[in-house]
DNA sequence: TTAAACTACTTGCAAAATGCAAGTGAATTT
DNA sequence: AAATTCACTTGCATTTTGCAAGTAGTTTAA
């Protein structure tokens, strides 16, 4: 079992890293059109059900969502929790590793502000906070997300 | 010609944005496994030829490289320059819009430092600078990249 | 001066990823 | 007890990727 499972790990995991560059490694994890949106939703909401993700404006399809949640969980960026009141619901939330992505999302928002129009209201509000005190905003938000 | 080209623009450009969220918009532009590596190379080198990109450790395939360069140029993240001494070479460099991605790359590097091992030497050197004075590093690097 | 080598790409094709619609089975509500 | 909700899965067509080989202009070496 030990041997079999580690063999399986070796054979099945596509962890033939292209390089040790952290940009490259990061892209292999969340370098697609959807992963960071899942992470964004969790930054805003702290906890989401599967259905919450499906409700997001960008309309991820359900099979892609399931696949992304699985790899993000495997890579320990998010974790599953049991729902306090319902057995049929599942809660997802960010781990420390996931929460630490916040500064990246903040910088993407700042870049987006410069080069895109018609930002959503919640982004405008967020950016207003960020520009008053970036470090403070990040600390505050990380504390809010912190695992209890 | 006016009508035809704008019609073509309307029909061919896949600019049906999923949403106005800057995260989502950014991902539609460089949310793949390769674009940010091209941008990274240009942040380090200021100017690269087509062949320079192909030489990078991650070994992008030539058709993907051509496709990414084209869309990054269309989106005005990079621009083409003629090579000072050779007619057969082409130089690529970042525009202001591209240079402004630097803070995002810096944060990805900082995140990567926490969660990956065996970082390349140049990343370690970069991070050492960044951690002494993040704003200073970004200003310095942006100035270095600035279009002459 | 001409052939070989180098440049920035393009093309063809197989394999993988994506996106849509329709299921499935367990838990919950009516 | 039936209908609805929940978190997924499955099947399949379309799109994107990745590999290998090719091409046309440019530069180099004989």
Description:
Two copies of one chain form a homodimer. With 148 residues, chain A is mainly α. Chain A has a single domain (21-145), classed as Arc Repressor Mutant, subunit A (Orthogonal Bundle). In chain A, 62% of the residues lie in helices and 8% in strands. Chain A has helices at 2-12, 22-30, 35-45, 50-55, 62-74, 96-99, 102-115, 121-132, 134-145, and strands spanning 47-48, 78-82, 90-94. In chain A, strands 1-3-2 form a three-stranded antiparallel beta sheet. In chain A, helix 8 packs across helix 9. The longest helix of chain A has 14 residues, at 102-115. The first copy, chain A, is globular. The interface between A and B is large, with 43 and 43 residues. Chain A binds a DNA duplex (30 and 30 nucleotides) through residues 32-33, 49-51, 61-67, 86-90.
What is the percentage of strand-forming residues of chain A? 5-15%
Q: Tell me which CATH architecture of chain A applies here.
A: Orthogonal Bundle
What is the class of chain A in the CATH system? Answer: Mainly Alpha
Q: How many domains of chain A, as an integer?
A: 1
Instruction: Write the H/E string of chain A, N to C.
Output: HHHEHHEEHHHH
Identify the overall geometry of chain A: globular
**Hey, which two chains have the biggest interface?**
A-B, 43 and 43 residues
Cross-sheet strand order for the largest sheet of chain A: 1-3-2
* Alpha-carbon distance between the two ends of chain A: 34 Å
Which ranges of chain A are low-confidence, i.e. pLDDT below 50, for 5 or more consecutive residues? 1-11
Supply the helix-strand structural class of chain A: mainly alpha
Q: Number of helical runs of chain A?
A: 9
What's the alpha carbon Rg of chain A, rounded to whole Å? 17 Å
């Amino acid at each position: 079992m030990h041997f079999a499972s580690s063999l399986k790990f070796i054979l099945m995991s596509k962890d033939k890293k292209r390089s040790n560059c952290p940009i490259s490694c990061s892209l292999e994890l969340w370098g697609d059109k959807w992963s960071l949106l899942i992470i964004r939703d969790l930054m805003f909401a702290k906890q989401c059900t599967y259905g919450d993700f499906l409700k997001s404006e960008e309309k991820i399809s359900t099979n892609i969502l399931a696949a992304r949640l699985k790899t993000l969980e495997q890579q320990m960026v998010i974790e599953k929790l049991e729902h306090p009141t319902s057995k049929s619901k599942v809660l997802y939330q960010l781990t420390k590793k996931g929460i630490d992505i916040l500064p990246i999302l903040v910088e993407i928002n700042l870049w987006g502000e410069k080069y895109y129009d018609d930002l959503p209201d919640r982004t405008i509000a967020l950016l207003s906070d960020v520009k008053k005190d970036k470090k403070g905003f990040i600390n505050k938000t990380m504390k809010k997300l912190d695992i209890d």
